[in-house]
Each structure stands twice: as C-alpha cells, then as structure tokens.
Automatic annotation (TrEMBL):
Ranges where the record places region Disordered: 1-20
Superkingdom: Archaea
Segments forming domain UPF0033: 17-79
Name of the protein in its database record: SirA family protein
Gene3D superfamilies noted in UniProt: TusA-like domain
InterPro entries per record: TusA-like (IPR001455), TusA-like_sf (IPR036868)
Coiled coil region boundaries: none
Length: 94
C-alpha cells in the first residue's frame, strides 16, 4: 500500500479500544499496540494516537504484513512543532 492510498478521514464508527502513544518511544509504543491487537476481538476497531512521525509508514506496514485492516491515518498539526497521528485499525481474525 502506498502512502497516497491511505484514507485520511476517520471511519464513521466509534473505536473499541485506544492506545495513546503520544510522547513515547517507538519500542514501547509498538509493544502497546501489539498487546492491544492480541487482546482485541476480531472486527474490533483500535485507535492509536501517536506523535511519532514514522506512524504513517509503520502502521501501514503492520497492516500490510498481518490480517489487520488499516482504515485511516489522520494527521493533525496542532501547533508549530507538534504533529499528531491517529491511526484506525480493524483487528483481524474474526
């Protein structure tokens, strides 16, 4: 999947779980996401909030390499130096 193909608008459903990785390092953040994906039921929507600029690339790769579906990645530039990314994944394995 190319970055241009990633939807940039949140799905019209409420997330079932949220992982807040804003301000955390990559290693601890991905561990939290993996735990949530393992704990969640198939078909559940996981929202991941992040300030890591690699979020768009890494979560798209995660979805491409697993049975989880990338629904959207929103980008919000809420300040001069801060960009937040909100990723929506549908957990696979239903």
């Amino acid at each position: 999947m190319t970055e241009g193909a990633i939807p940039e608008t949140a799905p019209a459903v409420d997330p079932d779980m949220t992982v807040d990785n804003r301000g955390t390092g990559c290693a601890s953040g991905i561990a939290r996401v993996q735990r949530a994906l393992e704990d969640g039921e198939g078909g559940a929507i996981l929202r991941i909030r992040s300030t890591d600029r690699r979020a768009k690339r890494e979560y798209a790769q995660l979805a491409a390499q697993t049975d989880h579906e990338l629904l959207a990645i929103e980008t919000d530039r809420s300040g001069l130096f801060r960009t937040e990314y909100t990723t929506y994944l549908e957990i696979g394995g239903e």
